[in-house]
Amino acid sequence: MTDMIEKGKGPTSTPEEREFELRAQIGSIWSGGRLFIGMYTFLLASEVFSYFYLRSSNNGMLWRLPHQHAPIAYGWAVFIAMSLTALLAMYGQRQLKKGSVVDFQVAGWTGVTTGLIALIVQIWQLTKLSFFPGSSGYASTYMGFVVMNIASIVIGTYWLETTLARSLRLRKELGGENPELSMDPMAQLFRANVASMAYFWGFLAIGGVLFTAMFYVM
Amino acid sequence: MTISAERPIEVVTPSATPPAYGRSWTQRPGWMSQHLGTAIVAAILGYAIGHWFGNYLASGYSFVANSGQNSIADALALTFGVVGWLLGIGALNYPLAKLIGRDGAKEETVDNWTKYFRYSLDHKVVGLQYVVGVLLFMFTGGLLAMAIRTELLNPTTHVFSADTYIKIVSEHGTVMMMMATSIIVGPLGNYLVPLMIGARRMAFPRIEALSFWIFVAGYMVIFSALPYGGFPTGWTGYAPLQTQAGPGMISYLLGFAVIGIGMMAAGFNIAVSIINYRAPGMTWSRLPIFVWSILATAALLTLATPVLFAGGLFGVLDKTVQTAFYVTEHGGSSYLWQNLFWFFGHPEVYIMALPGFGIVGEILPVFTRKPLFAYKVAAAGMIGVALLSFFVWQHHLFQSGINPDMRPLFMLTTELISIPTGFIFLVGMGTLYKAKIRFEVPMLFAMALFFNFLIGGVTGVFLSDVPVNVTVHGGFFVLSHFHYTIMGGLLFAFMAGLYYWLPKMTGRMMNSRIGKWHFWTMFIFFNLTFFPMFIIGLLGQPRRVYTYAPRLQGLNDFSSISAFLLGVSFLIFFANLMWSMWISPVKAPANPWDSLGLEWQTANPVPSYNFERIPVIMTDPYRYSEADAPAFADMGDGAGRSSSTTAGSSQA
Asked: Is A39-57+70-217 in CATH node 3.40.50.620?
């Protein structure tokens, strides 16, 4: 909380209080990560609801025009790149827990790369659409999905990248061989953040399976 | 790990200088510092760039060229304007700095009055910023209400055209609903929750600050609808009217989405703070009832608002890239909007109601010197209301897009929700029972809530029944019902909270005599304004129409004149605020109401870190009637605070 307190005007704190604050911060990252997933679930659920609502309504027999498909190859490419990012994020977090910081960083930066690839392909896919956005219910919900997926990839990749950047900062500020694994409060907060980030990517991967099935398989 | 009441002697003073890693780029010299002024400039620049970009992108599209209206440019202008606003105020400094691994810990802090015009990480500053923000919202929404009542003075002589009238009604409704969603969580939730749970900070202070500044941005986006020509849909924005509306509709949809982000941010931060930052000893059964109400509200904000955001996003896509989410003729459905809107919209009613109950639950024990009756029932009632509120939204579709066979189910769930609501109401009555009441201004407002909400609640039970609903749908009866619950409940509770906690927040007492004038005028004219509307509604006057049957003019005139006098009562409030805060301020005692609440036990003014020592909670929060009750908290200065000690201190 140093950032909240004017220089020289801060409270004094006992070791117990500092420990209490640290536990609260770690708990906040943990429960904040889960709550964020809950919030995001409702956002994605709105898209799922819209898809099935319009599909079952089939107003004017215009749920989906004959032979109307989103670009399947691009869709699968995005799905694979996102899943890969999720796997790398989770693998990296596992390796970090086991004490292998290098593995975490290599997996992380690779994950950032696959995340960016997913983002570029997802945006590029919009130029390859064979239908007008308002031509049917399917086309409309597909556009909604694309916008949400772009947001998901940006948020997830940002979170992954910033944990890696923080890892580099830890090295600068704490020194030592593997400061990410130390008991320093900053390192503990860092590890909690990595865990929440990996959890979020796992959630995005599960969501990706659902949306891929909805838009490219069903 | 627990912090025991027996404190260790060792203390550690924070280092006088932060670690030196060079000057952070988030730190600015004085002339480059970020504040409201830079935010306005950046927002205007963002707006202009967005508009230019939108024209560059889309001016050649046939639907733009043919209509002469470039919705893409309008949407991009507003979006870039919001981003510019956030960049200008400094809300994006830290997220951008994180990308390159920079530490946000070296962001500038300002300790003078200008901090209220900046992106502040102090929850107390954010709380006070919200007070001003929501009052501004309320004032502008109130002016629009006066315009509505002016038009309704006469059914044949018109001040506004029918088109202008519906746009005023729409803007009034939207502004007021968005204001009401934040009116307690924003100012009082942000300011008081950390103090009430014994925390030195919020869990995510940057997200908290972001929630306020984005709230202001959303306010401006919604107001931008007026220069864009307004929107004719009412606050509910129903399609297909939404689809047919002009560019003002973009402001409505985008404004909802932007404010939605702020609401999610606020709810998220507050919920996480309550879960993790409660002081040692503050178990769930010792949590102040106001905090319970804010927790339930924060959960609703976090989970229900994303659906509104998605609904707004789909609407913006319909208006810009020509999707057809809400266009039935193209495979969409206008009922889809109704479902998404009300899936948020009905929990929103409880987002507004629950914090009001929390405030009165906090105030009643103080002014009756009794424990809160059935505290656990009240807490359970709040959680019950929050849960059930997700299962009632279809009652808003009784008249439109619902399978008639589904009506009984949603009638049942709607009636069920009156049970936990009734619990909360009875908790208040139980606390008042045989009490020796001190009729101070906050208590008057708190008691008025029960009167108003009883009328609003009972008419709500009527409305949940399909036959009544079908009969009075779309009329003034419904309008009166929700004004009784929202204005009669929430706004009276907000006033109770302001009169009660402003001495803590500002160190100055509100003038009691003017406060009583404010209360009585507001209470009387509120009821005289809105009660006749039940009758007007039953006699068949529809909402959102600028004319009506001549035989209803007497009742409408009575209601309008009462509304003007209700407006005067708000002027009395603003006069009291000016008088008590700036013209003739009276220093507030440390604990003017003899409260046991933890928020009153901190130093005055509250230091930026709230508590010198993290308090240890020793007992329940409402043991007012026990003369020898143990201290509520060990404040770490060698003495706890009990009812007897606070009573003594307040006399000082």
From this structure: no
